[in-house]
Amino acid sequence: MDKTISFHVLSDLGADQRARLLQRAEADIEPFVEKARPIIAAVRDEGDAALARFAHDFDKAPVDADDIAATSADFDVAFGAVDKEMIEVLEFCCDNVRRFHQAQMPEAMWMKEMHPGVLAGEKIEPIESVACYVPRGKGSFPSVVMMTAIPAVVAGVRQPIIITPPGPDGKVDAATLVAARIAGIEHVYKCGGAQGVAAVAYGTETVPRCLKIVGPGSPWVVAAKRLLADRLDPGTPAGPSEAIILADETANGRVAALDLLNESEHGPDSSAYLVTNSRRVVEEARTAIPGYWAEMGAQRVDFSSTVLCGERGGIILTETMDDAIRFVNDYAPEHLQVHAKSPFDYLGALHNAGEILLGENTPICIGNFALGPNAVLPTNAAALTRSPLGVHDYLKTISIGHVTRNGYDRLAPYAHTFARYEGFDAHANAVSNLRTRALAASDG
Questions:
Q1: Quick one: average pLDDT of 402-408?
Q2: Neighbours of 125 (CB within 10 A)
Q3: Residue 334 a catalytic site member
C-alpha cells in the first residue's frame, strides 16, 4: 500500500471534514449478536459441556468438560515456563498498579451532620463477584490481568475470577497465570468469547456466576455482553485503541513520532493522531516514521501504516495550541500524551481524555505497563463522561442516615409538605401526628 502519512491542516477543513476526523472505527456487531444467541443458549443449557465443545470449535483447543479450571499445578508449571526476568517485571509493575489503586480507595464509611441530630453519609461495599476477561486472540496479555485483577483484589471483591480463551495446547497462557497469582487471584477458567461471557452470566458446573464482567474483548464478547446485560453488569465498553500525541513548538518531532506509533500498531481499526501547531514538528515526524517502521515486524507495520495513512490517523496541523487543545477535547482520546518543554502548562485546559501523560519521558507504553494508573480506558469519545477502570468499578455505595428525635422535628414538616404536594398519603402520614401518637402509645 501507499505509505504516505495522512496530513490535515485543521483550518482548511469544513465542519463535515473536521467531524470525520473525530470518528472512530465502529465495528458492526449486529451479525455477531445473532450468531452469539445460540452460543449463549447452549452454555445456559449445557454448562461445561458446551464450553468444552466451543473450545474445540472456536479456539481449536483440546479442553474437556472436567478441565475448564486451571489447577494449582498449572500455576506452578507456569512459573517455570515464564522467564525469570519477565516474572520480575510483572512483580515490579503489579506493585506499582497495586499501590496506585490502594491510594484510590475511598473511605469505608463517612457521615456528615446536615443539621443538629441529622446524619447522612455513605457506606462503601465491594461487589460480591466480578469476572476479569483477559483476551488472547492477538497474543498474550498479562497486562490486562494486572489492570483488571489488581483493583478487584484491592477493592475487596469476595469472588474475583479470570476467564480467558485457552491456547492451541488447551492450556491457559503461562504469563496470564503468573500475573494472576501475583495479582492475588487463583481462580482462572478456560473460556473466552461469547461462551465465556455466558458462563459467568449463568454459571456452570465449574465456572461461578458473577455479578459483573470487566476487561476488553472481541466483537463476540461485546455482543454477548449486550445480550446478557440483564443478567450481569457488562462494565464499560472497550473499543479499538486510540491516541493523540499533542505537541507544541518546543517538542521534538522525532520523539513524538516514536510515541505516535504506540497505539497505531494495535490493529487496523485503531486511531492515532499527532496534533501540533508546529510545521517543524510535522516534518520531523513525517521524516522519522519510515525509519521506525523499519525497526518493527511486518504485521505491526501493516497495522500502523493502515492507521496512519488512512482515515483515522496521521498528522493534524493547527494554527495555534488553543486550536489543538480544542480538537483534543472534542476528540476525547483514550490516551493523550503531551510533548512540550512545559507540559504542565496545558494540563488545566485538557478536560477530556482517558489518561493524560505529560512530557516526552512519559510514553504511552509506560502508562500501559509500568506507571501504576489503570490502562483499561474509555474509548470512542466515552472519556467525555467515563473514567478509567479503577477500584470504584468494583465497589458500590450504600446511603446511610440517622435522625434523632430533635432532628425528626426539624425535617418532618418539610417531608410532610412534599408528600402532600406529590399526592402520597402514606408518605405524609408517616411524618404526621399519627406517628407522634404511635410513639407516645409505645412509650406509655
A1: 96
A2: 15
A3: yes
> pTM for the whole thing?
0.91
Domains of the chain in sequence order: 7-24+240-372 (3.40.50.1980), 30-227 (3.40.50.1980), 404-443 (no CATH)
Name the CA radius of gyration of the chain, rounded.
26
Is 276 strand, coil or helix? Answer: strand
pLDDT 10s digits, 295-346: 999 999 999 999 999 999 999 999 999 999 999 999 999 999 999 999 999 9
Helix axes 30-46, 193-202, angle to 10 degrees: 50
Looking at 146-288, which runs of residues are DSSP E strands?
Answer: 159-164, 188-190, 212-214, 242-247, 271-276
Instruction: Report strand pairing: 188-190 vs 212-214.
Output: unpaired
Nearest Cα to Cα of residue 304 among 274, 262, 244, 241 = 262
- DSSP, collapsed to helix, strand or coil, labels residue 380 as coil
Catalytic position from the list 242, 335, 339, 355: 335
Q: Rounded mean pLDDT of 195-208? A: 98
Concerning whether 335 is annotated as a catalytic residue, the answer is yes
The answer for residues whose C-beta is within 8 angstroms of residue 298's C-beta and 6 or more apart is none
pLDDT class of 375 with cuts at 50, 70, 90: very high
Q: What is the pLDDT of residues 26-75, one digit of tens each?
A: 667 888 999 999 999 999 999 999 999 999 999 999 999 999 999 999 99
Measured between alpha carbons, how far is 130 from 160 in angstroms, rounded to an integer?
Answer: 5
Asked if 340 and 276 touch (Cβ cutoff 8 Å), the reply is: no
DSSP element (H, E) containing 395: strand 395-403
Q: Which residues pair with 8 in a beta bridge?
A: 316
Mean pLDDT is lowest, of 38-42, 135-139, 262-266, 429-433, for 135-139
**Grid coordinates in use for 186?**
487463583
| Angle between the N-to-C axes of helices 30-46 and 48-58, in degrees from 0 to 180, rounded to the nearest 10 | 140
Q: Which helix (H) or strand (E) holds 111?
A: strand 109-115
C-alpha cell at 314: 496521521
Average pLDDT of the residues in 349-362: 97
Q: At which residue does the C-alpha cell 509493575 appear?
A: 93
What is the reported pLDDT for 443?
Answer: 67
CA dist list (Å): 103 to 29, 354, 398: 37, 19, 21
| 272, pLDDT greater than 70 | yes
Amino acid in position 266: H
From the list 242, 263, 334, 360, the catalytic residue is: 334
Beta bridge partners, 132, equal 162, 214
pLDDT given at position 183: 97
**What is the C-alpha separation between 71 and 424, in angstroms, rounded?**
57
